[in-house]
Amino acid sequence: MILIAVAAFTSCKQDQYYLYNDVGRLQFGPEPDRIYTTSFDLADTLKPYTFYYEDPTITQDTIYFDIYAIGGTKDTDRAFTLEQEQLPNTLNAIAGTHFVAFNDPKVTKFYVIKAGTVHAKVPIIVLRDASLKTTTPKLKFKIVVNENFQLGERNKLWRKIEITDRLSQPAQWTTSFSQSYFGKYSVVKHSFLIDSTGDKWDNDFITNLYAVGGLLNYYQTVVKTALIDYNNAHPGNPLTDENGELVVFP
Q1: C-alpha to C-alpha distance for 13 and 34, rounded to whole angstroms
Q2: Which among 160, 158, 119 is positioned nearest to 142, based on CA atoms?
């Protein structure tokens, strides 16, 4: 009975990306090796991006999202369509200024589920406009019905990017990262981490902290010591962030 239950549970998890078999449908998802891990279903809903770490000569970059066709493969290539969705009460990214438009041939040629497959990497090209030095526009985009695809699960039809050329909170600076290791995020704290260690403290760096045993504890010690040294060197004027709060590490 236990074996049957386990098998049924596993089968249900594996079928979550094949819920529809009436017509071809499309939806976003996590990386292919994580599609059967429920906790990663919405992991890439928002991807903050900053040009801050890039050389001034870099004027554009590409951010990738994973997309999946539901209902099986076809023996021909199937193009899909994306469009921007305007967000209320916020600064929306502008096509041609902050990103390459979704109907531009530079990107539409990549918006294809290849024959015999159900997965593709979606490239979103972001542009380094001067306005990003002082603003962080948001780009929300969604799947649009076309001749090849209807829509998949409702909460997996869109993705969002926050684009800037300033220090910004990395996606990997999560709630647990704050609570357990380096405290509440602030730009001043982020800058202090970079200055005191010589490292970027971007997504890749934080991912590596988790991957290598002992690194988190090591860097905690390094930055706590650096903060003590800073505050001792500035008696009566301890390090405070842009919100006027003391910079602290747990």
Answers
A1: 11
A2: 158
Taking the CA of residue 43 as centre, how many other CA atoms within 13 Å lie in the half-sphere pointing to its CB?
15
Q: Which residues are CB-contacts of 117 (< 8 A; sequence separation ≥ 6)? A: 69, 73
d(Cα 235, Cα 174) in Å, to the nearest integer?
Answer: 32
Distance of alpha carbon 121 from alpha carbon 28, whole angstroms:
10
Confidence of residue 20 (pLDDT cuts 50, 70, 90): low
Q: Kindly give, in sequence order, each residue whose CB lies less than 8 Å from that of residue 63, ignoring residues fewer than 6 positions away.
A: 47, 49, 123, 124, 126, 161
Q: Give the β-pairing of 150-151 and 25-29.
A: parallel
Q: Is the separation of the CB atoms in 96 and 90 below 8 Å?
A: no
Average pLDDT, the chain: 90
Is the entire prediction scored with pTM above 0.70? yes
pLDDT at 40: 74
CA 69, 73, 76: angle at the middle one, nearest 5? 105
- Write the pLDDT tens digit of every residue in 144-201: 999 999 999 999 999 999 999 999 999 899 999 999 999 999 999 999 999 999 998 9
Q: Residue 198: is it exposed, middle or buried by C-beta count within 10 angstroms (0-12/13-18/19+)?
A: exposed
